[in-house]
């Protein structure tokens, strides 16, 4: 079986599900967080080692109502506290190394500190890897990397003749992560929405109509099986 080592997930549809059920839009984010925990277990069952979730885009930070963002941040704080205090948290039970990437300077200071503490707390785990994109934008990642390369060239640290794909990757926020073989998006939309545009160049894409909190184990396993049956060509 060609089971993917790394899956990227765009968990879309939290707010739309909440509205459909006549609940506050951000209530869906609470359900969405619960689903992420379940998906971690499903990935463990399938032997998938690395998961990357698109939690909050830069566009979300710019355009979402302040009240909704504050609720999302409060959920994040609560989950960070659980990871730091609960030795039986799924992260510790399954030895999951947690990584964050994005423009953390746009987040509340206490949340930035929580991110730092979780990263430090789980740095020695290596059974599974959970990457969380927060305040993230793929185009912005490429622009920031380009600026850093240009600066190092100006300082004589980098020879412009030596710039290639491998070197550029070392300047990305995602430096050190493998590319996802499979990207799954829920919620019915069929686009990547600025999620890992460089890294997902050859990823297989699967779009599901169900809203993220509605995703069931059968749906997830079916998506992985579909990936296993595809023939990856890498431009050939």
Throw out a few tags for this protein.
Undecaprenyl pyrophosphate synthetase, six-stranded parallel beta sheet, 236 residues, globular, alpha/beta, 9 helices, single chain
Write the layout of secondary structure elements.
Layout: E1 6-10, H1 14-20, H2 27-46, E2 50-57, H3 58-63, H4 66-85, H5 90-93, E3 96-101, H6 109-121, E4 128-136, H7 138-154, H8 165-169, E5 182-185, E6 204-207, H9 217-229
Parallel strand pairs: 1-2, 1-5, 2-4, 3-4, 5-6
The CATH superfamily is Decaprenyl diphosphate synthase-like
Overall SS class: alpha/beta
CATH architecture: 3-Layer(aba) Sandwich
In percent terms, what proportion of residues is strand?
Answer: 15-25%
Write out the strand line-up for the largest beta sheet, numbering strands in chain order. Answer: 3-4-2-1-5-6
């Amino acid at each position: 079986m060609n089971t993917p080592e790394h899956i990227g997930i765009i968990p879309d549809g939290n707010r739309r599900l909440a509205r459909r059920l006549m609940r506050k839009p951000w209530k869906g984010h609470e359900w969405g967080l619960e689903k992420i925990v379940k998906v971690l277990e499903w990935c463990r069952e399938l032997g998938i080692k690395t998961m990357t979730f698109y939690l909050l885009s830069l566009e979300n930070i710019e355009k979402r109502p302040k009240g909704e963002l504050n609720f999302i941040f409060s959920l994040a704080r609560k989950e960070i506290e659980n990871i730091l205090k609960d030795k039986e948290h799924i992260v510790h039970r399954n030895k999951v190394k947690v990584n964050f990437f994005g423009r953390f300077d746009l987040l509340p200071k206490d949340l930035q500190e929580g991110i730092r503490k979780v990263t430090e707390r789980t740095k020695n785990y290596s059974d599974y890897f959970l990457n969380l994109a927060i305040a993230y934008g793929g185009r912005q990642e490429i622009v920031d990397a380009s600026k850093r390369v240009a600066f190092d060239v100006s300082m004589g640290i980098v020879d412009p003749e030596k710039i290639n794909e491998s070197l550029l990757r070392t300047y990305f926020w995602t430096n050190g992560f493998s590319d996802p073989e499979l990207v799954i998006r829920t919620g019915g939309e069929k686009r990547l929405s600025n999620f890992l545009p460089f890294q997902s160049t050859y990823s297989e894409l699967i779009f599901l109509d169900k809203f993220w909190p509605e995703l069931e184990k059968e749906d997830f396993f079916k998506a992985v099986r579909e990936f296993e049956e595809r023939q990856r060509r890498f431009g050939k």
